[in-house]
Amino acid sequence: METTNPNNNQMTLSKKYQGVYSKQLPNNQIMMYIAYKNNNGNYSKYKVGLKSSTITEQFCSNLRQNELSKIRLGDEIQLSSKTIIKFDEIANDYYYNMELNQCSDTRNSKNKYINHIKPVFGNINIYDIAPIMINEYKILKLKSLAPATVAMQISFISSIYNHALKTKKFKGSNPALGIESTIHVDNARERYLTLEEIHSLIEVLKSNKYKNKPAIAKLLLYFVKFALSTGARASSIINIKRSNIDLKTQTVQIFDTKNKSWYTAYMNSKIFDEEDFLFLEGFKNSDYIFWNNKRKLTHRIIAYHTRPIYNEMFNVGLEEDDYKFRVCNHTLRHTFASHLAINQVPLFEIQKLLNHKDINMTLRYMKLSEANKVSAVEGIY
C-alpha cells in the first residue's frame, strides 16, 4: 500500500486511512480524494467529494477498498474510464421518468436528492457504490436527521437503482436493498385533536387571527375542514376539484396519491355549514378548490401557513423532532380516524374511509375503540 502523496499537489494524507487524501480549496472547503496502485503499478487518483457533504475519511476508505478488491479479483473498472456511469445520471433518468408519469411527489423527492444524496453519491460510478458505503451514509445522517427522514433518503437510492435495473442501465445487485429496513422508525402519531381543540382551531382560522392574506386564510380554513371531515391526505385534498364534490349527497371523490386510487369521502354537517356550501357552489366544475393567485396550492405552501398556527396552539414546549405528539397537517387525518374509533365505528369501515390497503394499518386505532368500550361498561350503573 502506498503511504506517500501521489502528486505532491498540496494534498494531505490521512493519518488513519491509507490512500485517503484531502485538499483545502480557496474557499476553505475540503475536497476528499482516494489514490491506489492499479495493475500497471501506476497511481490512480479519484476526486470523491467535499467533506462538508458527508464525505468522511472512512467513506473514502470504503470506496478505495472496493476498488482494490476489484483489482485483486481481476475486475478493475478504472475510475477515469469513459464508460463510467455516474450515480447522478441514473438519478436524473429516474426523476425524468417520475415527471413523465406525473408522480405527485416528484419535486419534493428530487429536492431531497439534490440536497442530501447527490453531494455524496452523485459523482461516483454506480458500480463502485457498495452497501458498506450506504450504511456509513446512514450512520452519519442519523446523527443530524430523524430516522424516518434517513430511511426515506435510502429508499430513494434503492428506487433509483431499481429503475436503472429495470431500464437495463445497470447490471448487478442493488447496494441499498434492505438497508432502509435496518433503521428503527418509531414515529407513529399518538396525538389527535379533542373536540374542543377542533372547534378552537376552526374559530382561529375563521377569525384570521394570524394576519394571513384573506384568500389564503379562507383556504386554510377549508383545508382543515376537508381534512377533519374526510381524513384524506394533504396531497389528495389539494387536488380536489369542484366536479369531485356532490353537495346534494355531501360526498367527495378523493384521489389517493399514495395508493393511486379513487374513493368516496363524506362532508360532515357539523364541520361544513350553509355558508361553506354557498362558498363551494361558487366554483366552476373544472376549478380546483385550493387555488390562489393563479396557481394551485401545494402541500408545502399549506404547511408553511399552518405550521405557526399549530405551534402556537398545540406545540408549545415540544421538541422539534417529537413526531409522536407534535400537531401537523397529518394530525388531522389521525384525528379523523381516532374519533371514528372512539365512536365505535368498525375497523373495517375505518379502513375503507381512510382508503388503507392493509387492515394492519388500521389496527393501531383498536386501542381507542377498546378504551371507549371500557368507559361504556363503567357508565351503565
Plain-language structure description:
The chain has 381 residues and is of the alpha+beta class. It has 3 domains: 1-82, 2-Layer Sandwich (Double Stranded RNA Binding Domain), CATH 3.30.160; 84-186, DNA polymerase, domain 1; 195-378, hpI Integrase, Chain A. 45% of the residues lie in helices and 11% in strands. The protein contains 14 helices and 9 strands. It has helices at 57-72, 87-100, 106-121, 131-141, 147-166, 195-207, 214-230, 234-237, 274-281, 299-313, 329-342, 347-354, 359-362, 366-378; strands at 12-13, 20-24, 30-37, 43-50, 245-246, 251-256, 261-266, 291-292, 295-296. The strands form 3 sheets. The chain has a 4-stranded antiparallel β-sheet, covered by helices on one side. Helix 1 (57-72) runs antiparallel to helix 4, helix 7 (214-230) runs parallel beside helix 11 (329-342) and helix 11 packs across helix 14 (366-378). The N and C termini lie far apart (83 Å). Mean pLDDT is 85; it is low at 1-6 and 76-82.
The stretches of 5 or more residues where confidence is low (pLDDT under 50) are 1-6, 76-82
What is the succession of H and E elements? EEEEHHHHHHHHEEEHEEHHHHH
- Helix and strand content put the structural class at alpha+beta
**Domains, number:** 3
CATH class of the largest domain: Mainly Alpha
* Sheet with most strands: strand arrangement: 1-2-3-4
Taking all Cα atoms into account, the compactness measure Rg is 26 Å
**Share of residues in strands:** 5-15%
